[in-house]
Amino acid sequence: REASPTRPRLARAAIPREARRRECEVVVVGTSGRTGLMRIALGNLAESILRTVPCSTLVVRLGERRPGALW
Question: Distance between CA 49 and CA 15 in Å, rounded?
């Protein structure tokens, strides 16, 4: 399966694996910039990827969320 924002568990494993397989020099990851309870409740995919990829990581804060949007 392909990793996507709707499947964070798959992305959490797939992105570091693909970064190793493709010998990436950098991985760019978007983040919503959530803090506090929202971060704890939803987890932090960007932080997990940052800690597990074998290369440099650029974390980019995404724009404003749409009302009612999950991501």
Answer: 7
